[in-house]
Protein 1
Amino acid sequence: MAAFIESGWEYLITHFSEFQLASVGTFLLHESVFFLSGLPFMVLERAGFFSKYKIQSKSNTFDAQGRCVLRLMFYHICVNLPVMLASYPVFKRMGLRTTLPLPPWDVVLTQILFYFILEDFLFYWGHRVLHTKWLYKHVHSVHHEYATPFGLTSEYAHPAEILFLGFATILGPALTGPHLFTLWLWMVLRVLETVEAHCGYQFPWSLSHYIPLYGGSHFHDYHHRVLYTKSGNYSSTFTYMDWLYGTDKGYWKVKALEGDAKQS
């Protein structure tokens, strides 16, 4: 498997420049993973499949879904792509590389674990700030237009928020100067995580059933369906920040009531 990955990587660095891979390549990989993982949840909602696993009984209209997709494409091309192009010199200065051999798996996994921990800390406080009155009204309310989220709404946000919270995602890699392979793997995992958190479904195979402190879709769905001043659940991937600062108490009360209702 490792030999196969290195062979594929050798093809990439032979046929494309480092700048092309780090900027355009990163953008294309992000778009592919994001839309391929997010679009199925839009189809599920429209078709009504797996309705017993849907967290909310409400569904978005076709027009609302279409508006989300069009705005996402606009934001990604006009915000994400320019940022990726402009950030290459910064990452290069911080040590980004594409050469073979690929880094050992223990290095890759250690760096990604660090990225998750740092991102959780920064995202929690950034997200909590966005729920203050002025910032919510003028910036974060765009993301909350969808009280019933589906996978693609994970990146539906005001351009200022994209830049603001995006800082939490890229700071870890910027500090460590990783191999591009590590950066790509981190991006793929982060995209899949946030799409799953916004998918609107709690499946039996959802990671929140198996990974301690993992938030998942049910945890984040609560954040979307209550008033912004009372929502809590500000964390991105793991829930320890909300637990430490008591901003998950409302969620656990509601979950307990829902559990009692099912038993009665």
Protein 2
Amino acid sequence: MTSDFTEAEKRGFYKAIYSRRDVRSHFTSKPIEDDILSKILHAAHHAPSVGFSQPWNFILIKNIETKKKIKESFDKEKSRSSQLIEDPKKSKYLSFKLEGILESPVNLCVTYDPTKFGPFVIGRSSIPEAGLYSVCCAIQNLWLSARTEGIGLGWVSILSNQILKESLELPDHVIPVAYLCLGYVDDFAEKPDLESAGWLPRLDLKDVVYFEKWNDKENKNWKSIQNMIKENMDYA
């Protein structure tokens, strides 16, 4: 565990990051092998967590009736959210394929349990949300692991959490954080779907990095990396 990564291993790591996609379509009928699914879940479970609290749980879903209930919630929420925007953007939004609930062989709900290991968790007393952040770290681990195994993953965020809680019989204190669709796909797109569709552009790294203080992009103590960032180097 203490040995350095080889150059090949480093390239594989960055390939997983840069080629990861939020998959909504093109799922195949090929089932996910149990050993592969187990590896992905193990990767998620080895994410960092505040105070080593491991506040996540993973609910695996194949039941078609459960999937249909979740899909109905998606359809209602997508219609409701479309009322927040005007045409022509509204029509474009409604045309997007934004989930693969029924098409993907496995659905997975990742939850947050703030009561795990008791009320006091090291590091959570000042920032209570750190528990939720920990669950997001687990999801990212899961996402990258799935990509390295050639499995597509899509995060469905257009859902009612109340419907999720009812459908999955979650205790009142447990919070659903992510509803994910997993499955093998025909291909991974070159770019994220919403970028390709022109919904929003990808920001350059120089647009989101500051030095020492908010909005300081020209701090003289950081000239070398500023030039690298402005070149928008891509390590994919």
Protein 3
Amino acid sequence: MRSHIVWDWNGTLLHDMEAVLGASNAAFATVGVAPMTLEEYRAQYEIPIPRFYERLLGRVPSQAEWLALDDAFHVKYTELFPACRLTDGALELLTGWVAAGRSQSLLSMYEHAKLVPAVEGFGLTGHFLRVDGRRGASGGRKAGHLALHLEALAEQVDPGRTVLIGDAADDAEAALESGIRAVLYTGGSHTREKLTGVGVPVVDSLAEAVALAERITA
């Protein structure tokens, strides 16, 4: 089977950190947490997201607070989304990977019903064997979603020749739990310092990530 990449969306193929920060600060305001700079956010952020909010508040958010946080985030993110763009070089890398006879898919924790039109809006749908977003409640980990994604691709993809490229420690942890490899990109939600402890390669550009994926799946 061909070498395969499972791509993350937010913070990886999609450069949306300014929108994420704006949406997060809108959410923080609902519980009295001061706004953050981008670097402060990247240094603090973690998944699952309720744990991130728990650390900021110093206690577990109530159910009402969690719903208010989640709603405020998504309302503001939707407002800011039109200004988001693809990460530099992403389109060329996607095109080149397929042109070389390899395959790729997309798995995001962004809501599936919103992800599909967003990917289509950038003209990317045809580059992927499969596009999956989050189905169900927000705020959780990617591991279970990745297992289902790979199960759906089982007849087309060899786990031994598959690499997940993402921007969060949770991406790598999900990949390792599913028995595939991972490469983490520093341009998204986490600082390099937070990524290096996971035990997978960490790179500063998507071009480096793809080149590494090519080598380790050959």
Protein 4
Amino acid sequence: MLGGGALLAGGVALGAAGMSQGTWLADRHLPLSTGPASATVGNRRQDVGSGGLQVVWHVPTTERLVALTFDDGPLPQWTPTVLDTLDRYAVPATFFLVGSRVHRHADLIRGRLARHEVGNHSWRHRDLARLAAAAVHDDLRRSHDAIAEVTGVPPRLARPPYGHLGGGVLHAAVRLDYRIVLWSLQMVEGEFPDDPAGHARRIVADVVPGTILLAHDAGPANRQVALRGLGEMITGLRSRGYTFVTVSQLLGRMTAPRPGG
């Protein structure tokens, strides 16, 4: 009986080891210690900037504040139109810029961002969640340097393309001392083809205090619906008592949570 018990125990141990080995083999295509799923990079001391990372979708506040953000620019056929409209209404916004486009189209934004804020939207809009931490860092660092050179202001915010967060994205962002900014409301141009006013009314109705609103100054033609109605959107939100701020200004007005929730 002792021999049988020992054999059974040994079989359980071997079975557990076999399952563990099988799981490891099944996951070999995802090198978790360094790949896109991992927010760590091995066994040595890690460079993690300030040591913590804030990820924001929405800012809790009782004030009627909204942050308008634009992704994917700058591009000649889009960005000047957006900047002209924002200038006309004296509205600040946060632009999440693609570094390669900043490098190529620097003249579109140079000297035009005084009231605005810039963030990092990667070097060439790849899905960073599919890359390991070192590759994400290289991508964001390259974009960071291009944005800082052209605008004179190093970005402190990042928005990964498509809003995709992988472990490598988190690790690279903390190394660069970024805040990651996503959004709580986005334009829905496809629901309002050729109806800029209808689209504007929809967005105005959906904004609540602390909204981070996603728009684009690049992309398919249907996105022009939002841009053609941008003035009506601004006036509609102002009529509801809203003030436009940059993302960083909005973060600075965050209401502290009450004790116990």
